[in-house]
Every structure is written in structure tokens, then in C-alpha cells.
């Protein structure tokens, strides 16, 4: 979510060429003249559906006017809101989530709640229902609530309580963990989730930060990145690489995922700044 690099700039296996502006910044970090910004926890959700016998994922393109990563395709998501900690579902095993995330139960709860909230804010998909085994079929009646979450006049806990809804953490699966390299001006500690599009709901183009939305096969998205037709950030292409190996939503949700944190590093090689990707998260593209 944080690397302002187009994946078409790959020049060597496991490395991305960075803009020249990063050269001085990397030198400052290496010399101890600059300290990395504090990390902000964030959640991102890959919404999935089966269409025509194919697995598709929902993506949004950030508007060109954004100061950070304009024109880049991403999944719905964003930073944890301090009030995400206010919601506590009876019977929820936050400790188990924490074991997966490598976090305490409190942070795990915030990450799950942020995942549900951000998916609703940016895609109008609500992973909640009137009971622990039901889910909302139509999100249209909750549009005012969504806008309240966006402008922060509502909290997720307040919205769910007022509407008599229960958060459905069981519909989410943990999928990936990426940490922004220290050289970036904004840094996120991001957990990626997968979730099936609930029956009866539609993912909509409602994000104020997006100008285009698309349902697309993971491999088709990767092919467009390679062809220079779509711009994406390294964690996004890494997640798509993983999804491209599955044929259906059921296969994805049934997969027992190994949860490993990945953090690229910035280095200068022969006077040129590069973002070096972790070996275990190698992108499957040629130079």
C-alpha cells in the first residue's frame, strides 16, 4: 500500500528501480541523518467471487489527484481507526486471530474491525448480519451509516449497535502481511484478508479515493501489469500471484495459509536506488 513504484519498472529479479528522488533519502537513512516514520497498522480486504467458472477479485484505482500512489490499482482497505477497538463481539476469539497476526488480542480485534469497516466504506460490502449466522442481503439501507463512518461521525461499534448487527469475523481469512520499507515517507504495517462477496450484495464504486473499479481474474490483472496497462504496488501483485493459483472462492477460503511478514528494503546499487523484495515474496516477472 505504500510503494510509489509501478511494477512495469522491474529491472532485475526481485528488484524494482526507484525514482531518483529516493537516492538522497536512502543515503540519509544509511548515514543516520534520517529516522523512519512510525508505522501505522492497516487492513486490506480482497473481495472474491466466482463468475463464469473463474475466480475474480475486486479492485479499485486510486484517483490521479491523490498525493500518494495516484492511478494505482489496490484492494479496499485503510488504516486502523482508534475507535475500531471499541467493538467487541461476544465469543470472538481475538487471541486466535492474534496468534495468526503475531499481535496481541487487542490489535487483532482492531485489524479485523478495520477490515470490515474499510470494506463497507470503500466497496459498500458489509460483513455483518442480524445474528452470528446471518448476513445483510442488501446494504442500500445503510448508506447514511456508511457516510457517517467515512466522515468519522460514527464509529463501527456505534453503527453496529444502533442497527442491531453483529460483525462476521468468521467470513474473513488472513492472507498476507506486508510492512512498508523504512525509506518511505508514510509507513504501514498491513494485514491482507480474503473474503467472499456475500450473496445478495454488490461491490460498488463508492470510494472517494477511487475513479474506477473492476472485477478481474488475478492472472489477467498480472498480465496487464506486465504489459504496462495497470499500475500496482508490490504487495498487490504479490497477493495476485498467490490468488492466481486458485480456481474458485471455495479453494481460496479452504486454503491453510502460512502467514509471514514481508518487508522490502531500499538499496543503492551502482548509484541507482532499488527496492529489493524479500526472497520468499519474489515476483514472477522477468526483467
Automatic annotation (TrEMBL):
<dbReference type="InterPro" id="IPR000086">
    <property type="entry name" value="NUDIX_hydrolase_dom"/>
</dbReference>
<feature type="domain" description="Nudix hydrolase">
    <location>
        <begin position="39"/>
        <end position="238"/>
    </location>
</feature>
<protein>
    <recommendedName>
        <fullName>Nudix hydrolase domain-containing protein</fullName>
    </recommendedName>
</protein>
<keyword id="KW-0464">Manganese</keyword>
<keyword id="KW-0378">Hydrolase</keyword>
<dbReference type="InterPro" id="IPR015797">
    <property type="entry name" value="NUDIX_hydrolase-like_dom_sf"/>
</dbReference>
<keyword id="KW-0479">Metal-binding</keyword>
<dbReference type="InterPro" id="IPR039121">
    <property type="entry name" value="NUDT19"/>
</dbReference>
<keyword id="KW-0460">Magnesium</keyword>
Amino acid at each position: 500500500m505504500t510503494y510509489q513504484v509501478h511494477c512495469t519498472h522491474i529491472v532485475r529479479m526481485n528488484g524494482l528501480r526507484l525514482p531518483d528522488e529516493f537516492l538522497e533519502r536512502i543515503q540519509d537513512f544509511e548515514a543516520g541523518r534520517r529516522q523512519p516514520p512510525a508505522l501505522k497498522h492497516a487492513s486490506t480486504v480482497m473481495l472474491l467471487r466466482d463468475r463464469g467458472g473463474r475466480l475474480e477479485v475486486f479492485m479499485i484505482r486510486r484517483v490521479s489527484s491523490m498525493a500518494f500512489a495516484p492511478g494505482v490499482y489496490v484492494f479496499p482497505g485503510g488504516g486502523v481507526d482508534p475507535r475500531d477497538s471499541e467493538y467487541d463481539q461476544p465469543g470472538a476469539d481475538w487471541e486466535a486471530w492474534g496468534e495468526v497476526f503475531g499481535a496481541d488480542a487487542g490489535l487483532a480485534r482492531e485489524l479485523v474491525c478495520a477490515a470490515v469497516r474499510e470494506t463497507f466504506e470503500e466497496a459498500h460490502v458489509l460483513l455483518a448480519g442480524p445474528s452470528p449466522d446471518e448476513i445483510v442481503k442488501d446494504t442500500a439501507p445503510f448508506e447514511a451509516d456508511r457516510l457517517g463512518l467515512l466522515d468519522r461521525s460514527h464509529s463501527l461499534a456505534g453503527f453496529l449497535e444502533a442497527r442491531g448487527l453483529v460483525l462476521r469475523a468468521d467470513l474473513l481469512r488472513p492472507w498476507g502481511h506486508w510492512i512498508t520499507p523504512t525509506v518511505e515517507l508514510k509507513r504501514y504495517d498491513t494485514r491482507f484478508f480474503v473474503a467472499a462477496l456475500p450473496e445478495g450484495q454488490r461491490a460498488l464504486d463508492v470510494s472517494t479515493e477511487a475513479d474506477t473499479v473492476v472485477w478481474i481474474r488475478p492472472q489477467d490483472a498480472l498480465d496487464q501489469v506486465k504489459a504496462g496497462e495497470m499500475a500496482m504496488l508490490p504487495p498487490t501483485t504479490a497477493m495476485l500471484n498467490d490468488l492466481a493459483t486458485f480456481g474458485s472462492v471455495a479453494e481460496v477460503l479452504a486454503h491453510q495459509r502460512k502467514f509471514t511478514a514481508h518487508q522490502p528494503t531500499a538499496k543503492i546499487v551502482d548509484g541507482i536506488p532499488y527496492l529489493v523484495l524479500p526472497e520468499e515474496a519474489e515476483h514472477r516477472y522477468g526483467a
